[in-house]
Amino acid sequence: MSPLTKLFVVLQVILSIALTAATIVYVSKEDVQLNTLRRTEQELTAAETQLAAANSARAAAEANLTAVQSQASQQLTAANAAVTGAQQQIADLNVQLAKASATGAQQALDISRLTEGLKASQDTTAQLNQTVAQLRESSDKAVRQSAEMSATISDLTNRLDVAERERRNFAEQLAEIQQAGGGQRGTASAGNNAAAMTAGAVQNVPNIKGVVRDRRNIAGVEYATISVGSADNVTRGMQFKIVQNGEFLGTLTVDTVELQESTGRLEGPKIARVGPGTNVQTQY
User: Fold this and answer.
1) CB 244 within 8 A of CB 278
2) 259-274 burial string, b = 16+ CB within 10 Å, else e?
3) Is residue 195 part of a domain?
4) How many separate helices (H) and strands (E) can be counted in the chain?
5) Residue 246's domain spans which residues?
6) Is residue 266 a part of any domain in this protein?
7) Are 241 and 251 spatial neighbours (Cβ–Cβ below 8 Å)?
8) Structurally, how many domains does the chain consist of?
9) Full-model pTM
10) Category of 237 on φ-ψ map: left (φ > 0), alpha (ψ -120 to 50) or beta
């Protein structure tokens, strides 16, 4: 075999090997590309599915967004209305606050005036209390003076009555002596007249009974108030005997008389035992 033939055979073998290798490579590439194409198609299908799902989600999201925007718009409208109402309430409250401030200022002024009036009233009350105390002191003094004057008047009246009775007795005795012309006859007649006048005076005193209501000491003088007065024919200067359980305690000489009670001076050996409920009577 010639070298050229050998070379040709070798080249043919090499080309055959190369063709076989190329064929194998091509077939391998085609399989790879086919698999790649299939995977790509699957990925594309999955991507399209995801895209559809994404579009659905986007549509749902847009719908939700629209609903949320509508709700937000309604809420915003309601919030604006609430803000407007709140602003109106704030304005009304400001007006009321201004009125309340004015009223508070007026009330503060009134309170200040009332405080001043109260202070003036308290000062006036203190002055009135002082005046009342002075009047009470003056009244007690007047009562004491009245009691003393009543006692003096009563004593003078009693003395005057006694003197008048003695004068009348003496006048009657003198007249009888002059008429009878004898001393013994005139003396007996005068004594009989005096006894008759004394008995008549005792019989003319009404029998009045009562009880002691209270007693008090005024300027060292003991006084008592009894349960009978002008309605019971009590008169000033009348003397009551103070008796308890049949025991004589002293006397009460009436100084002042009212309709249902009288007040007088206490005198006697046992007036310390005189108290509310002790019996008094004009005749004993």
Assistant:
1) yes
2) eebbbbbbebeebeeb
3) no
4) 2, 6
5) 205-284
6) yes
7) yes
8) 1
9) 0.33
10) left
Q: Could you tell me if residue 279 is inside a domain?
A: yes
**Residue 140 CB partners (closer than 8 Å, separation 6+):** 218
Bridge partners of 262? Answer: 226, 257
Query: Do the Cβ atoms of 243 and 249 come closer than 8 Å?
Result: yes
Q: What angle do CA 194, 198, 202 make, to 5 degrees?
A: 170
* Tokens coding 101: 């401030």
What pLDDT, on the 0 to 100 scale, is given for residue 191? Answer: 43
DSSP string, 179-208: HH--HHHHHHHHHHHHHHHHHHHHHHS---
CATH of the domain at 232: 2.40.10.340
Q: Tokens 């010639």 appear where? A: 2
Cα Rg, the chain, nearest whole Å: 70
Residue 251: inside a domain: yes
Contact 165, 199 (CB under 8 A): no
Under 8 Å between Cβ of 237 and 275: no
Lowest mean pLDDT among 90-99, 180-189, 220-229: 180-189
Coil/strand/helix, residue 268: coil
Determine the Cα–Cα distance for residues 201 and 158; give it in Å rounded to an integer. 13
